[in-house]
């Protein structure tokens, strides 16, 4: 659609060369522009995918690590089970006494409440540090230094994440997420031990019995 | 009553401004976005609160789909060619120049090396067929994934490993994959996730 020239002066008196309008119709160009925008919007992604960085111990190192036992009071073991179920117990098995297994889920009221309670000291310290940082009392580097110092707290829990063969990848990511949320610095992904499987089985069997009685 | 004459106004609108806006937006999109790379499998990554972005270059991507099939891909077309050449040497398969070139255009693949030749002979559209994606073998008898990773590492030390697994992938597959990587002393890697939304939170309860 070409623009219709407006100022036609039909004067028979002056016969000059016709003055061509200098205006160009931009409509097709706009069409083209929007077409290209549409193409780019469909063919590209704006957001890069998120990642979670993870570092596992190397094989030789993990063998060495097994010898150094962690204090039972600091240890928490999280077991990932079937159908998104999570179990946890505190401490380790000592003198053949089974630790108390608790079944929970990944909701904020579940596993997180427990971890926050266990890691309360570290978390509150970090919160204070964040508040201080907002008042700009120190630089970013100093903040990082202080943060790592707090996380290295001697009484902070050490978490072992053990996944059963029935669990799915999402459970593992959720568990790792909880570690990040609860500022737990020391955690490891470990193979499940027969003892852990026994614990879960015993618990499920007990539940069945209770349901049977009721 | 006399007729009120409404002056005729021109219906032509000046498009210059609109054109400016269109091209401004176009420029913005061209600068901020990057092209979606077609992946060999449809994978719904799990959500997480992590907000670290993945680096743009030097990524070896290991994809794991919901059935536990493994896919592999690296970026950099030159490196892809070198990688296939090296892999061919290892398994005594000779890839010609055409096949190397074809391979350099493949973003990710899930085919055992023995079938790679016939896979590369296919047209790109035909490769999407699940028949041609049986997954890369990764067990103790025939661990091709291990070779892919270690050969990529021998090409460049810069490569980072990124694992993108489906949220419903059974854990044994992940364990196998992590075990393989651990055997290569590759202990640092990125797990690709999507940003957590409130809908995801509801699902957890």
The number of distinct helices of chain B, counting runs of at least 4 residues, comes to: 7
C-alpha Rg of chain B, in Å? 25 Å
Please, what is the average pLDDT of chain B?
83
Largest interface: A-B, 56 and 59 residues
Strand order of the largest sheet of chain B: 2-7-6-4-5
Strand content of chain A: 5-15%
Give the number of domains of chain B: 1
Largest sheet of chain B, if any? 5 strands, mixed
Order of helices and strands of chain A: HEEHEEEHHHEHEH
Ranges of chain A where pLDDT stays below 50 over 5 or more residues in a row are none
Which oligomerization state do the chains in this entry correspond to? heterodimer
- Termini separation of chain A comes to 82 Å
Largest beta sheet: strand ordering of chain A: 5-4-3-6-7
Termini Cα gap of chain B: 76 Å
Supply the helix-strand structural class of chain B: alpha/beta
What proportion of the residues of chain B is helical, as a percent range? 25-40%
**Form type of chain A:** elongated
Provide the gyration radius of chain A in Å: 33 Å
Briefly note the structural class of the backbone of chain A: alpha/beta
How does the SSE layout of this entry go?
The complex is a heterodimer of chains A (214) and B (205).
Chain A: H1 27-43, E1 44-45, E2 50-55, H2 59-65, E3 75-80, E4 86-90, E5 102-104, H3 111-118, H4 120-134, H5 140-151, E6 158-163, H6 169-181, E7 187-190, H7 194-213
Parallel strand pairs in A: 3-6, 6-7
Antiparallel strand pairs in A: 3-4, 4-5
Helix pairs in contact in A: 4-5
Chain B: H1 16-32, E1 34-35, E2 47-48, E3 52-53, E4 59-64, E5 70-74, H2 77-90, H3 97-104, H4 116-121, H5 144-155, E6 160-165, H6 171-183, E7 188-195, H7 198-204
Parallel strand pairs in B: 2-7, 4-6, 6-7
Antiparallel strand pairs in B: 4-5
Helix pairs in contact in B: 2-3, 2-5
């Amino acid at each position: 659609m070409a623009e219709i020239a407006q100022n036609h002066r039909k004067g028979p008196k002056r016969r000059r060369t016709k003055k061509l309008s200098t205006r160009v119709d931009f409509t097709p160009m706009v069409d083209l522009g929007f077409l290209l925008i549409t193409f780019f919007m469909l063919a590209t992604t704006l957001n890069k995918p998120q990642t979670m960085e993870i570092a596992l111990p190397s094989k030789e190192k993990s063998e060495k690590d097994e010898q150094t036992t962690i204090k039972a009071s600091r240890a928490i073991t999280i077991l990932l089970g079937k159908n998104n179920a999570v179990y946890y117990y505190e401490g380790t098995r000592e003198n053949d006494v089974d630790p108390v297994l608790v079944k929970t889920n990944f909701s904020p009221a579940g596993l997180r409440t427990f971890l926050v309670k266990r890691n309360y000291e570290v978390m509150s310290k970090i919160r204070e540090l964040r508040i201080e940082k907002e008042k700009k009392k120190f630089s970013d580097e100093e903040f990082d230094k202080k943060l790592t110092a707090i996380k290295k707290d001697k009484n902070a829990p050490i978490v072992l994440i053990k996944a059963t063969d029935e669990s799915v990848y999402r459970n593992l990511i959720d568990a790792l997420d909880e570690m990040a949320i609860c500022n737990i610095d020391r955690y490891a992904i470990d193979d499940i031990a027969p003892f852990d499987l026994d614990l879960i089985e015993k618990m499920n069997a007990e539940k069945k019995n209770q349901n049977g009685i009721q | 009553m006399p007729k009120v004459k409404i002056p005729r106004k021109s219906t032509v609108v000046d498009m210059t401004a609109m054109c400016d806006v269109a091209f401004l937006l176009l420029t913005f999109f061209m600068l901020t976005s990057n092209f979606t790379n077609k992946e060999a499998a449809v994978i719904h990554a799990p959500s997480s609160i992590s907000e670290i972005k993945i680096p743009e270059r030097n990524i070896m991507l290991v994809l794991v789909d919901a059935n536990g099939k493994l896919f592999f891909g690296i970026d950099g077309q030159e490196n892809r060619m070198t990688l296939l050449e090296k892999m061919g040497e290892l398994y005594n398969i000779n890839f010609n120049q055409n096949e190397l070139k074809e391979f350099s255009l493949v973003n990710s693949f899930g085919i055992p090396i023995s079938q790679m030749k016939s896979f590369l002979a296919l047209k790109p559209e035909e490769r999407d067929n699940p028949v041609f994606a049986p997954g890369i073998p990764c067990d103790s008898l025939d661990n091709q994934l291990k070779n892919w990773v270690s050969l990529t590492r021998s090409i460049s030390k810069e490569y980072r490993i990124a694992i993108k697994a489906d949220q419903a992938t059974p854990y044994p597959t992940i364990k196998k994959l992590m075990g393989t990587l651990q055997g290569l002393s590759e202990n640092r890697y990125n797990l690709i996730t999507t940003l957590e939304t409130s809908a995801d939170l509801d699902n957890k309860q």
